[in-house]
Write a structure and sequence with these properties.
The structure is a single chain. This protein is an alpha/beta fold. The chain contains 10 helices and 10 strands. Helices cover 39% and strands 25% of the residues. The strands form 2 sheets. The protein has a 6-stranded mixed sheet, sandwiched between helices. A 4-stranded antiparallel sheet has the order 2-1-4-5, with helices on one face. β1 and β2 form a beta hairpin. The protein is globular and about 55 Å long.
Length: 259
């Protein structure tokens, strides 16, 4: 977490609006992300969870508002300054987004080649360390994505997200497509990495088990805004109809029992 103490605001989103064509997906959204937390971002289909993530990391433009990361307004940065910020975060996209023509080792080395000038032996060693860090066997290094299971793809993509030793990790539906055992193991991995490395984890998810097991706070999106932030208990007490249905239903109760 470098210069940030646990609980400090590390990402700030203020009055952000994001749209496509004439439709606004997000309109007047405010959100703070605290250093060292696992924040779960939830919402119904089409509420803009993934769009907001992509806007924060610069892949989707906003129509208005202000986003600061590490106390720096992203709109005011030069390209070099923005690249320096990008080195401090890692991203795991929903389906892994591994390059199919590259091995796991080569995928992990992509950000190393983009941002750093390192020798091949050193990059190989970093890739081996990241592969071990996410719980993959050493022989996964030379496998292609087509040779991996869904769970292995997620872990390989996480290893790539961790390649530059980031302070923030963005995870988009990290347990989607995994069986319950694989999802639980991945949740445990995320929490362990957060505790060991001091990461801040911004996790878009619809997985009630993940929300109950590993999230310190939850941010719920609806009506183009963040309608509630807080713990699972806070979500359960909130009067918004969607929150009552989502967190008070049968599956939510089962998730809380398992957690």
């Amino acid at each position: 977490m470098a210069d940030y103490a646990s609980g400090d605001i590390i990402i700030s989103v203020r009055d952000v609006a994001i749209g496509f064509g004439e439709r606004l997906i997000i309109d007047g959204l405010d959100l703070d992300v605290h250093a060292g937390e696992v924040l779960g971002v939830v919402g119904g289909s089409g509420t803009g969870k993934s769009v907001l993530t992509r806007c924060i990391i610069g892949l989707v433009p906003k129509r208005r508002g202000k986003i600061t990361v590490f106390d720096q307004d992203l709109d005011t940065l030069s390209r070099a300054e923005h690249k320096a910020i990008e080195r401090r975060w890692g991203v795991l996209f929903q389906h892994g987004a591994l390059f199919s023509s590259l091995t796991v080792k080569q995928n992990i080395q992509v950000p190393l080649r983009e941002y750093l000038k390192l020798s091949e032996p050193l990059m190989d060693e970093i890739a081996r360390l990241k592969i071990a860090m996410v719980g993959l066997r050493a022989d996964a290094a030379d496998k292609y994505p087509s040779e991996l299971s869904g769970g292995m793809i997620k872990r390989a993509a996480l290893a790539r997200a961790l390649a530059l030793d980031p302070e923030i990790v963005f995870l988009d539906e990290p347990t989607s497509g995994l069986d319950p055992i694989g999802a639980e193991e991945f949740d445990t991995l995320i929490r362990t990495l957060r505790d060991t490395l001091g990461l801040t984890v911004y996790m878009v998810t619809h997985d009630l088990d993940s929300l109950a097991r590993i999230c310190d706070r939850i941010a719920a999106l609806a009506d183009g805004k963040v309608i509630a932030t807080g713990t699972m208990e806070d979500m359960l007490r909130h009067p918004h109809p969607w929150l009552k249905k989502y967190f008070g239903g049968e599956r939510a109760r089962a998730a809380r029992v398992k957690a």
